[in-house]
Fold this sequence. Notes:
Layout: E1 5-9, E2 13-18, E3 26-29, E4 32-36, E5 42-44, E6 67-70, E7 73-74, E8 77-78, H1 81-96, E9 105-109, H2 115-128, E10 134-138, H3 139-146, E11 152-157, E12 162-168, E13 171-172, E14 178-180, H4 184-197, E15 208-212, E16 221-224, H5 233-251, H6 261-265, E17 270-273, E18 279-282, H7 285-294, H8 308-317, H9 324-328, E19 331-334, H10 343-354, E20 363-364, H11 369-373, H12 375-384
Parallel strand pairs: 1-9, 9-10, 11-19, 19-20
Antiparallel strand pairs: 1-2, 2-3, 4-5, 4-6, 7-8, 11-12, 12-13, 12-14, 15-16, 17-18
Amino acid sequence: EVGALVFDIGSYTVRAGYAGEDCPKVDFPTAIGMVVERDDGSTLMEIDGDKGKQGDTNALRVPRENTEAISPLKNGMVEDWDSFQAILDHTYKMHVKSEASLHPVLMSEAPWNTRAKREKLTELMFEHYNIPAFFLCKTAVLTAFANGRSTGLILDSGATHTTAIPVHDGYVLQQGIVKSPLAGDFITMQCRELFQEMNIELIPPYMIASKEAVREGSPANWKRKEKLPQVTRSWHNYMCNCVIQDFQASVLQVSDSTYDEQVAAQMPTVHYEFPNGYNCDFGAERLKIPEGLFDPSNGLSGNTMLGVSHVVTTSVGMCDIDIRPGLYGSVIVAGGNTLIQSFTDRLNRELSQKTPPSMRLKLIANNTTVERRFSSWIGGSILAS
């Protein structure tokens, strides 16, 4: 019995591993370093990726000239097939370390994936990798399985989008899918704006040779590395985003109820130090930034998109009236962006106000980071084992 492999490739990270295990063997960024040659051809370099536990340095994070950081996915679907293939090659060669032809594969796909892309992917897996068997399953269905449900409403908030996807008896109800671009990358953008307002300079670690401890709020005192290659803008941005994502995870918190200046002013502050040594306390900003997810008009940059709880209620409203109780009865929260502190508390609070009195609302959210970030991978692991 040769184990099946499960691939769950998201816009932010790639999760892969053997079916039947409780968490993926690897989890590395989906971005890939593309070396752009000066003449005309472009050559693909080995992709980045943190090589499991050996602690080998990330290939992508080494500054090189003319290396663009690109992502093969757009809107959750494969856009750039060459770099997508490079990711699979890398996973097989560095992590699976076994012949592709020995393992059946289960792969997750976006619920709105198109038929043409599905055919192309199947062709790639059978003809290029010679795999014995292949199964494509929608991410939302896998998330439901990971939580022991076959019916429910999956609220998946990842890097590029937040979606509510109704699943009934293991099938996605396409007409009820609601998508909103307010997700992790949106928060990253808000953080960037905040840093510009506060005149905080973002210096990724690759530029820093040494730094000295400075007092809170004082200008940073650091030395720049001397021989830095001319990096591309996209790569530098990728490195800045890595810094911001750490800030997001350490500092941000969702306000329990609608954002209120007075309440926010009494928030305990959180101390954060940037890679160049600059450090300061963050108070009200901690709540102000993620507020944009729930109440977009009240966030840093006001807009009229659907907030998280609206996405859920709109989606349920688009489904048949008979199955609504089943959806409200298991609203499953998944995706890395939902791990911002108090995200689920706020969601629970808002949904209980919006749910019709006749419905029983039950929010299902795993407490552990692993289960929530890898939920569709875990569902795949259960299904394929």
